[in-house]
Amino acid sequence: MTTERAACTALLLTLALFGGACGDDDGATGDAGPAVDAGPADAGEPPFTVDSYCPGAEGCPAGGDPTLLVGAAMREITPSLEGRDRMTLDTNGDGIWDPFDGDEFEDVDEDGLFDPVFIAGFGSPRPASDIHDPQWARAIVLQQGETTMALVALDTFSIFIDDTDAIRAMVGDEVDFLTTCATHTHQGADTLGIYGLGESSSGAELSYLQHVREQAAAAVREALEELRPAHVQYASFRFRDQPGGTTRYVSDARHPRIIDDEARIARFLDAEDESTIATFVNFGAHAEYWGDENTNLSSDFPHFLRDATENGVAGPDGEEVPGVGGMTAFCQGAIGSQIGPGEITPETWEGEALPDESRETMEVVGRQMGYFVLQALGEDGGSVTDETAELGFRQRRFFVDVQNRGFHVAILNDLFLRESYGWDEDQLLRPGVNEPDILTEVAVVDIGRLQMIWVPGEIDPALFVGGYDGTSYTPEDVDFIDDDLENPPDIALAPEGPYLRDLAREDAEYVGIVSLGSDQIGYFLPDFDYVLDARNPYIDEAPGDHYEETVSVGIDGWGRVQRQLEQLLAWTPDE
Predict the structure, then answer these.
(1) CA 97 distance to own-chain centroid
(2) For residue 371, what are the contacts with CB-CB under 8 A and spacing of at least 6?
(3) One-character DSSP codes across 429-441
(4) How distant, in Å, are the alpha carbons of 1, 249, 254, 514 from that of 258?
(5) What angle do CA 122, 127, 129 make, to 5 degrees?
(6) Chain centroid, CA 176 distance in Å
(7) pLDDT tens by residue, 515-571
(8) Where residue 123 falls among pLDDT bands split at 50, 70, 90?
(9) Dihedral Cα 42, 45, 49, 52, nearest 10 deg
(10) What mean pLDDT value characterizes the chain?
């Protein structure tokens, strides 16, 4: 069982307490929402407009100095455990951490209060016992002419649009566009809100989220001060071309098995001495390689990926490959069908099999990933370097209807620390009658040869690359669809395309996608394979391979986001 599956049990129990109906709520709001062009989701599709873009908009004209300026900075966001309750793993000696089966917490104060840092991902509760490695806010700021963009990668399980907007407000108008991504670590503090002690208890703390916001804004401001002329090196690799093939490093738990196994890399070099300012890495793999029994705070495999890229790592032959220095930032790619370690067969370079979901696997696989990044950036990696890069972005904000009944329960219990709109808090929440909307956004970021698509959730790789032929994005050593799968997807109904990658800028040689980009509203799945349980939709899984539907915003969610993305990708400043 991977990712959020176990945590949904908490919402199930909460829903059972409500008897399927929901009462009053003290925290969620039912106002009309902020002034954005896209009205509430049930109001129909308004004419398409962008909410911000550069260059070409007022204040950031096209042309001007073509020099690319880049700065980078990082600030630590590790939750403090000082004075916090900690847990003792496996007090009763059965080998499994379970607070309801005799395992005990440490440091509960004399009043009997329990105040730990709750870890997000998998089941709950999972209070932190120690810190394995620091978590970071890593900012890369790029400027060309009058266009300034900031990309902030956060070692958090998730990030809501409310948090991203708060960071933007703290940075102010020195940046034309600031976007965030969450590395989706399943070993960090709960930022989503459903990983607390009980069924209706949030594990997220506003004080910690505020700390993350402040540190992210501070990293951006510091990166702005470090701006200097830069060149950009582009590179990529595919996991299928690495030793052992794709499934040694990443797997797909949902059928059909389609993995976007390409990694996109952009390295920014000081124009004066060719030293590394920052390296941006993007590919899809759930950051849960340490597994669900760990209680140490960690950024999971991204920690070792970044360390190897920056400081070097041993290769397959034992040779030490030097790192490129600077700061490395990682953003998740297409992970929406449980892309991650679930069914991998990890090995050391020497061929020694590694245990599933362990600290050793997390470190070894993370360092191997860093080695592949260094190889791609090396002399024989096929990379290209340009003296400058044309920058640009476009952003679209809109509302999405929350149809998921489990999400309704979370909203009513203030588990999600985000605003909701367009529903009557004095009435029952009922499907199709009184449902909340949430505000979200999509964005497209251009950095020379690279185009990145920002998506506010966990997108199925097939929606990005297609792959329904069963070969181009399916590892050779796995079945496209298992013969014994109950209720298998009907591939004859799969869309023929174009897919999102096909809609990218024609001259973009490197195209990537960022899951959990500036927001998190759940999984995005292909419509033809979106199946809900007939009796208890969104709460129970439909027969077959349909967990992701229970953690999606609703059956209409992807269609709403897809239309905005397709129009945004087709839009030009001339319009």
Answers:
(1) 27
(2) 308, 313, 314, 315, 321
(3) -BTTTB--EEEEE
(4) 19, 14, 8, 17
(5) 120
(6) 23
(7) 999 999 999 999 999 999 999 999 999 998 899 999 999 999 999 999 999 999 999
(8) confident
(9) 30
(10) 89
Indicate the SS3 state at residue 386: strand
The residues spanned by each domain of the chain are: 8-14+32-78+134-393+433-443+462-570
What is the C-alpha to C-alpha distance for residues 391 and 388, in angstroms, rounded to an integer?
9
103-113 pLDDT tens trace: 665 555 555 56
Spatial separation of the C-alpha atoms in residues 417 and 409, rounded to whole Å: 13
Token pair in block for residue 444: 């497209």
CA-based nearest residue to 44, from 437, 523, 532: 437
Cβ neighbours of residue 116 under 8 Å, at least 6 residues apart? 84, 85, 86, 87, 105, 125, 127, 128
- Say what the pLDDT of residue 279 is: 99
- Residues 6+ away with beta carbon under 8 Å from 435: 42, 401, 402, 403, 408, 423, 429
* CA 171 to chain centroid: 22
Q: At what angle do helices 359-377 and 301-311 cross, to 10 degrees?
A: 40
Is the bond preceding 498 in cis, omega lying within 30 degrees of 0? Answer: yes
Is the pLDDT at 28 greater than 90? The verdict is no
* pTM for the whole structure: 0.91
Q: Residue 565: enclosing H or E segment and its boundaries?
A: helix 557-570
Q: Which two tokens stand for residue 406?
A: 């489990």
Residue that the structure tokens 């962008």 belong to = 50
Structural tokens at position 447? 């950095």
* Whether 473 contacts 465, CB under 8 Å: yes
3-state secondary structure 328-362: EEEEECCCCCCCECCCCCCECCCCCECCCCCHHHH
Q: Cα separation of 524 and 488, whole Å?
A: 18
Distance CA 207, CA 213 (A): 10
Between strands 327-332 and 384-386, the pairing is unpaired
Give 397-438 pLDDT, tens digit per residue.
999 999 999 999 999 989 999 999 999 999 988 888 999 999
What are the helix (H) ranges across 24-93?
none
| Residue 259: C-alpha distances to residues 267, 461, 475 (Å) | 24, 6, 8
Say what percent of the chain tops pLDDT 90: 78
Token pair for 446: 């251009």
The structure tokens listed for 498 are: 């174009």
Using CA atoms, how far apart are residues 554 and 435, in angstroms rounded to an integer? Answer: 11
